[in-house]
Amino acid sequence: MFAKWKQSTSTGNTKALNKLRGMALFVRLADLGSFTRVAEQNNTSKSMISKEIGRLEDELGVRLLHRTTRNVQLTHAGEAYLQRARKILADINEADAFVQSLQQTPRGKLRINAPMVLGITDLADMFADFMRQFPDIDLDIHLGDEDVDLVEQGFDLGFRAASHPFDSSYVGRPLTTFQYRICASRRYLDRYGSIEHPKDLLHHNCFEYAYFKGKNVWPIEDGIPIKGSLRVNSTLFMLEAIKADQGVGFLPDFVCRDALKNGEVVEVLKDVQKPSLTLYALYPARHFVPATVIQCIAFLEQWFSEP
Q1: What's the topology of domain 178-276?
Q2: Which one in 14, 63, 147, 281 has a CA-CA gap of 20 to 30 Å to 232?
Q3: Contact at 8 Å (CB) between 119 and 143?
Q4: How far apart are CA 118 and CA 129, in angstroms?
Q5: Between helices 46-60 and 2-32, what is the axis angle to 10°?
Q6: pLDDT tens across 215-268, in order?
Q7: Which of 148, 145, 279 has its CA nearest to residue 211?
Q8: Same fold: 112-176+277-305 with 178-276
Q9: Inter-CA distances, 133 with 126, 279, 292, Å
């Protein structure tokens, strides 16, 4: 049984290779318009080229060419087949070039967009390691929390921390997850009262992050509407206001990790369920992804998987 399967597979591979060769000759013939010129370029006879094209037509069950003594004209089916054959051959060449580029040392510029705080904290260490491993890649990094169009702004790669997947115009590779923390200073809590239940937040000065999708509703329980004296587009700025005893903030742990460890702020409502935050590496959905992007994402996945 295995011998029959092996023979069948071998026959199928041979037929596929023959079809690709016939397809390539057909495209070349359409471009040059002459069996003689195609034969000369391939260092073979005109009759051999004619047999290859005839074999392709027989397999397809349709005539692709009108042959005359002076020229070659495509049939209606030939015109349609030519467009698709060009695309298939171009995709094969692109795949070959891509795999070959991975064997070479990646080089060139990589334009990256990343959230401000992540860029300053976790990603700064990661990219320092990346630059040591890939010295021939020049990084052009833009840090900012505003929502930008990667394609329109010319970015090769972007990072987004989100609780929900992104739209299909990008390929999103999840790298790691973070948790949200509700933070305040001890002095603030001593002055304005403890926070034991989510509804206690209704009576506290809760800060709003300008780019937060939920706006002034924190995603705990069924959603807790908050209000306060600060709305800001920087979570680092918000953290400083919390450390200065001014209010309460809903922060990703990469923002407040060190402040919690140092005792500058404390976490309240630890046991209340909150959404997790996934860090995605995003790049435009396209057939050919530059080797620099592939190498960077592979490095990121390994870097975040290590303790």
Answers
A1: D-Maltodextrin-Binding Protein; domain 2 (3.40.190)
A2: 281
A3: yes
A4: 15
A5: 120
A6: 789 999 889 999 999 999 999 999 999 999 999 999 999 999 999 999 999 999
A7: 145
A8: yes
A9: 11, 22, 12
Please check whether residue 243 is in contact with residue 185, taking contact to mean a CB–CB distance below 8 angstroms.
yes
Q: Taking the domains of the chain in order of start, what are their residue ranges?
A: 2-102, 112-176+277-305, 178-276
Burial class (CB in 10 A: 0-12, 13-18, 19+), 307: exposed
Which CATH entry fits the domain spanning 2-102: 1.10.10.10, 2.40.160.60, 1.20.58.340, 3.30.565.10?
1.10.10.10
**Domain 112-176+277-305: CATH superfamily, name plus number:** Periplasmic binding protein-like II (3.40.190.10)
In tens, the pLDDT along 129-182 reads 999 988 888 899 999 888 888 887 888 899 988 877 666 577 888 888 999 999
Q: What is the pLDDT of residue 196?
A: 94
How many C-alpha atoms does 184 have within 13 Å on its Cβ side?
22
260 within 8 A of 266, measured Cβ to Cβ: yes
Residues 6 or more apart in contact with residue 57 via CB below 8 angstroms = 63, 64, 65
What are the pLDDT digits (tens) for 37-90? 888 888 888 889 989 998 998 988 999 988 776 678 899 998 999 999 988 888
Cβ atoms of 65 and 34 closer than 8 Å: no
- What count of Cα atoms within 13 Å lies in the side-chain half-sphere of residue 175? 24
Residue 62: count other Cβ atoms within 10 Å of its Cβ: 14
Token digits of residue 48: 């051999």
pLDDT of residue 194: 94
What pLDDT is stored for residue 69 in this prediction?
A: 60
Rounded-to-10 torsion of CA 245, 248, 252, 254: 10
